[in-house]
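Weekly sync, protein design subgroup
Attendees: M.S., D.O., the rotation student, P.L. (late)

Item 1: inverse folding check
M.S. brought a backbone from last month's batch and wanted to see whether the design step gives back something sensible before we order anything. D.O. pointed out we never logged the input encoding, so this time it goes straight into the notes. C-alpha cells as presented (254 positions):
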C-alpha cells in the first residue's frame, strides 16, 4: 500500500514550506500536492526528493472535492500526514467585502478543511497526523478581519475536539496558530491596506520548522513565537471587548 503525505495549499507560503520540510523525513512513497496553481505545484514537485503528484483543484468547488474522494477510493493509499494548509483572508469592513469572498473564506477555510479531513480519515492509521493551519486570530473576535477570524475560530474548535475523538485511534490533530507570516497571504487579504501595524512578521520556514516539532510531539494547539504566545495569553485573560478596543486603536480603525 502506497504511503502518502497530502498537503493542501502547497503552491505557496506555509503549505509549500510543509511539503519541503516533510520531504524525506517520514516513511512516505509519494506527496500529493494540492492547490489551484498547477505551474507552482509542478515547480515544487521538481524540487522535491520524494515523488509527488500534482493535484490542481479548486477547494471551493464541490465537484473537485468529490473527484478527490474518488481518487482516494481508487488508490486506497495509507495517509501518513494531512496538512490542511489552503486558506485565504480578506480584511475590510464586513459590508465592503463581497458576498462571494465572505462565503469563499468559509468554503475554503472551513468547509474544504472539514471535507478533506473526513474523506482522508478512513485512510489513516495509528501514528498518522493531521495539521490544520489555523491562525492567532482564532482566539478573539477581530473587527475588519471579521469572517476570516471567525473561520479560524471554527478551525480551532473543530481541530481540538477532533484530536480528543481520535486519541483512541492514535491519530493526532494539531491546530497550528501562527501570528503574521511572510507569505503571499497579504497580497490578497490586505489589498486595501486595512492592517497598518505589524508588530512582528515571522518567516514561514521558521514557523513550519517549529510546527513540525509540535506535530511530532502530538500537540493539540501550537502558537509559534514568544510575542504570538503573549498575545494569545492576553486574549485568554482580558475581556474581549478590551482586546477589540486595543486592536482597533493599534490599527487606527474607527
Ligand atoms: N500569512 C499569514 O500571516 C498567516 C497567519 C496565520 C494563518 N495563516 C493561514 O495559513 C494558511 C496558508 O496561508 P499562507 O500564509 O501560506 O498564504 P498563501 O501563500 O497565500 O498560501 C495560500 C495557499 O492556499 C491555496 N488556496 C487558496 N485558495 C484555494 C482554493 N480555493 N483552492 C485550492 N487552494 C487554495 C493557495 O493556492 P492557489 O492560489 O494556487 O490555489 C496557496 O497555496 C491559510 O489558511 C492562512 O489563513 C496565514
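Designed sequence read out in the meeting:
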Amino acid at each position: 500500500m502506497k504511503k502518502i503525505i497530502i498537503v493542501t495549499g502547497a503552491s505557496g507560503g506555509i503549505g509549500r514550506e510543509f511539503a519541503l520540510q516533510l520531504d524525506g523525513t517520514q516513511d512516505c512513497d509519494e506527496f500529493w500536492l494540492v492547490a489551484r496553481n498547477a505551474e507552482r505545484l509542478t515547480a515544487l514537485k521538481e524540487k522535491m526528493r520524494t515523488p509527488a503528484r500534482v493535484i490542481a483543484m479548486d477547494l471551493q468547488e464541490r465537484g473537485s472535492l468529490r473527484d478527490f474522494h474518488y481518487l482516494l477510493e481508487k488508490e486506497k493509499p495509507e495517509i501518513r500526514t494531512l496538512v490542511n494548509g489552503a486558506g485565504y483572508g480578506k480584511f475590510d469592513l464586513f459590508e465592503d467585502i463581497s458576498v462571494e469572498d465572505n462565503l469563499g473564506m468559509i468554503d475554503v477555510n472551513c468547509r474544504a478543511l472539514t471535507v478533506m479531513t473526513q474523506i482522508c480519515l478512513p485512510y489513516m492509521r495509528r501514528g498518522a497526523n493531521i495539521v490544520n493551519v489555523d491562525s492567532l486570530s482564532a482566539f478573539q473576535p477581530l473587527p475588519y478581519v471579521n469572517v476570516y477570524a471567525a473561520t479560524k475560530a471554527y478551525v480551532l474548535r473543530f481541530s481540538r475536539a477532533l484530536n480528543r475523538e481520535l486519541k483512541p485511534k492514535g491519530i493526532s490533530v494539531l491546530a497550528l496558530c501562527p501570528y503574521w507570516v511572510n507569505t503571499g497571504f497579504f497580497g490578497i487579504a490586505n489589498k486595501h491596506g486595512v492592517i497598518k501595524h505589524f508588530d512582528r512578521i515571522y518567516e514561514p520556514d521558521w514557523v513550519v520548522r517549529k510546527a513540525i516539532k509540535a506535530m511530532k510531539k502530538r500537540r493539540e494547539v501550537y502558537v509559534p513565537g514568544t510575542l504570538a504566545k503573549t498575545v494569545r495569553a492576553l486574549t485568554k485573560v482580558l475581556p474581549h471587548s478590551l482586546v477589540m478596543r486595543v486592536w482597533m486603536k493599534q490599527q487606527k480603525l474607527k
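Discussion: The pocket of NAP is lined by residues 9, 11-15, 35-37, 58-60, 85-89, 108-109, 133, 135, 178, 180-181, 183-185 (CB under 6 Å). The chain has one domain: 3-250.
Action: P.L. to compare against the previous round before Friday.
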